[in-house]
Amino acid sequence: MCELDTVSKNDRSRIMACVKSSGNKSTEQKFVSILKNARITGWRRKYTAYGNPDFVFPSKQVAVFVDGCFWHYCPKHCRIPSTNVEYWVKKISQNAKRDLQVTIGLKKRGWIVIRFWEHELKGGKDFIQKIGRLKRIVNKTNVVSRGFRQD
């Protein structure tokens, strides 16, 4: 077997532990630009909520997650590395299971949960539908005006 890694397992473990789980340019920072371009306002980052959503609209109880295709087991793009397969299958499967538990937990608390895959940020039908849904939800007003409630 050909070993391509140039550092020891301990060094690789230390390096991987330093990988940031937020502020990823390909996901979260790109999504900030998308929100700004779509003129979607009212969002917060690093907001304390169950499951640590990437973006939260506190007044609307909306949690948005931008999931990386590798780490969250995207059915279209996740490719398990060919070395240490058992470890990676277990690790990534646990991430996907946790994502489902977080979604269920937030919904039980009355939150709306929207999840975007990293690859969806490039555009396409699914992305347009989800960003449109998000925009409708956050622009929805609950203000009672002249005896009519607008939902």
Specify the biggest β-sheet: 3 strands, mixed
Beta-strand content estimate: 5-15%
Unreliable stretches covering 5 or more consecutive residues = 144-151
Our count of domains comes out at 1
Could you walk me through the main structural features you see in this protein, from its secondary elements to its overall organization?
It is globular and about 55 Å long. Helix 3 links the parallel strand 2 and strand 3 (112-117). The protein has a single domain, classed as 3-Layer(aba) Sandwich (Endonuclease, Chain A). 40% of the residues lie in helices and 13% in strands. Strands 1-2-3 form a three-stranded mixed beta sheet, with helices on both faces. The chain has a two-stranded antiparallel ribbon with strand order 4-5. The chain contains four helices and five strands. The chain has helices at 9-17, 25-37, 85-108, 125-139, and strands at residues 55-57, 62-67, 112-117, 144-145, 148-149. The termini are far apart. The chain is of the alpha+beta class and 151 residues long.
Summarize the helices and strands and which ones pair or pack.
Layout: H1 9-17, H2 25-37, E1 55-57, E2 62-67, H3 85-108, E3 112-117, H4 125-139, E4 144-145, E5 148-149
Parallel strand pairs: 2-3
Antiparallel strand pairs: 1-2, 4-5
